[in-house]
Amino acid sequence: MIEDTGPTPVKTKRQPRFRKVPLRLIVPNMVTLLALCSGLTAVRMAFEGRWEFAVGAVLIAAVLDGLDGRVARLMKGTSKFGAELDSLADFVNFGVVPALMLYIWILNEAGSLGWISALIFAICAALRLARFNVALDDPDKPAWASKFFTGVPAPAGALTVLLPLYFDFLGLFPHWFADSAVVAAYTIAIAFLLISRLPTFSGKNFGTRVRRDYVLPLFVFAVLIVALTASYPFRMLAGGSVLYLLSIPFSWQQHRKLVLADTGKSIDEDGDESDTDLDNIADRDKDHGS
């Protein structure tokens, strides 16, 4: 007699222990990690007193930071993991690294004030990046808002806060600027620009569409900028930092015009809103009539 043992169990296909990850997801993260390695190397160069290499490493980290997102979008390799990794790398490269470089260079002479200013800069960089990540999910932003950042972006803040260091190596360090307490105050000022509500030009939409007759001159201009930066790094970085700081009032003015245009208002010759003049005229006529 044959005993019935029930239905024969069906063998399921065994899933592989490790799934293959597409290369298009790996490449952007590798660029981010290279930027992180460059930023951490800048700290080593600062400890060794090799300031040219330290500044160059921060600059390379900034360039790679601008490339990783574009590479991810180009290869369709964006991911939540990559976004989190990029944010953490930005905090280290553009928050911790510049603060440590300035402290090693001159802020240590200011004692506790120098360390506090370095802490404030690093903390403000973290807060600025956190606010940027949250703002990405805002569905109510107008289309023109992509032309501006809220506050100074972290890479620009990192390169701008090193302006006293550039001046020192160029021999242009003003006597009043050579004091460690003044550098600490400047560091705190740049830190507050990071978390400020001031609109600054983003440049994200720059170069998305280029006229055909501008392509070759653009190539020549790009090569010229790279060659000048490689040959005269401190001059180019100092000039770029000063120009960037001077551009902030213009970005604020442009942003204000777009806001008023979006709300149906305009700016007249005296710089205020045209509607206010109409209100003033109405109030004046009312006073005369009473």
From TrEMBL:
UniProt EC number? 2.7.8.8
Q: How does it sit in the membrane?
A: Multi-pass membrane protein
Keywords, A to Z, come to: Lipid biosynthesis, Lipid metabolism, Membrane, Phospholipid biosynthesis, Phospholipid metabolism, Transferase, Transmembrane, Transmembrane helix
Q: Does the keyword Transmembrane helix apply?
A: yes
Q: Which residues form the CDP-alcohol phosphatidyltransferase C-terminal domain?
A: 214-249
Catalysed reaction(s) here are:
a CDP-1,2-diacyl-sn-glycerol + L-serine = a 1,2-diacyl-sn-glycero-3-phospho-L-serine + CMP + H(+)
Q: Where is the composition biased (Basic and acidic residues)?
A: 281-290
Keyword Cell membrane included in the entry's annotation: no
Give the Pfam families listed for this entry: CDP-OH_P_tran_2 (PF08009), CDP-OH_P_transf (PF01066)
What top-level class of enzyme does the UniProt entry assign? transferase
Which NCBIfam families would you find in this protein's record? pssA (TIGR00473)
The Swiss-Prot or TrEMBL record describes its family as follows: Belongs to the CDP-alcohol phosphatidyltransferase class-I family.
Protein name from the UniProt record: CDP-diacylglycerol--serine O-phosphatidyltransferase
